Amino acid sequence: MLRRTLLTLLLHKPFGVLSQFTLEPGSRWGCLSDWVNVPDVYAAGRLDADSEGLLLLTSNGRLQQRLTDPRFGHWRTYWVQVEGTPDQSQLDALCDGVMVKQQLTRPARAQRLTAEQQKAIKERNPPIRTRLSIPTAWLQLSLREGRNRQVRRMTAAVGLPTLRLIRHSIDLMDGGPPLSLSGLSSGQWRELTPDEHQRLMALLNRQPKFR
User: Fold this and answer.
1) Residue 204 pLDDT > 50
2) Helix segments in the chain, DSSP class H
3) pLDDT surpasses 50 at 52
4) Closest Cα partner for 97 from 110, 86, 87, 84?
5) Looking at the predicted structure, is the pLDDT value of residue 2 above 60?
């Protein structure tokens, strides 16, 4: 039973769903109301319709603003399937920063996804496009900013086009475990635990890390 005093949820947003509760006229994409029947919550940040993964929904406007303000630099970790086989120079470039729309991205974290992590990834519906002559690989990419389609533009800039993009976790930067997709299948959502709720409320009193 959802407690009315706790209107903050974690959703595993499926592919093909807009990060909003209303359909766009003429759009081929669905919306959040197809998956979440809870009033008065809205997405804190967004994922493009062709991306999947962790989306935080809240009724707290200040919390929405705080989680999306780049001055606070929350690490967001993505699992990214790319076309090609990444080498160390490409990973280093992603970490150091690449030019996206004439602006250098902030330093990031990039590494290959482990075989154990890849086992947790379910097939997408619809499946990604594949070409038999070109291999694919999975990366873990963590960013402290969220420009429009940034992950896709960063991997493309180093010659690794993104095929599939999943936001796996959001670090609240308080020493506790990140909020993650753990235990959530695509389309599922859950309430925050009382401890998670307290950690989010504590963000409202934190000072920004960047100017």
Assistant:
1) yes
2) 61-68, 88-96, 115-119, 150-157, 194-202
3) yes
4) 110
5) no
Separation of alpha carbons 126 and 163, rounded Å? 12
- Report the pLDDT value the prediction gives residue 80, as an integer from 0 to 100: 98
The whole-angstrom separation of Cα 89 and Cα 101 is 21
Using CA atoms, how far residue 163 sits from 12, 74, 138, 172, in Å, is 18, 25, 10, 28
pLDDT score of 211: 65
- Give one DSSP letter per residue of 174-193, joined into a string: SSSPPEE-TT--TT-EEEPP
| pTM, to two decimals | 0.93
Among residues 34, 48, 50, 87, the one annotated as catalytic is 48
For the record, the structure tokens of 187 come out as 């389309």
Q: Which domains does the chain have, with CATH numbers?
A: 8-69+174-205 (3.30.70.580), 75-169 (3.30.70.1560)
157 or 208: which leads in pLDDT: 157
- Residue 138 φ/ψ, nearest 5 degrees: -110, 130
| Active-site residue, 48 included | yes
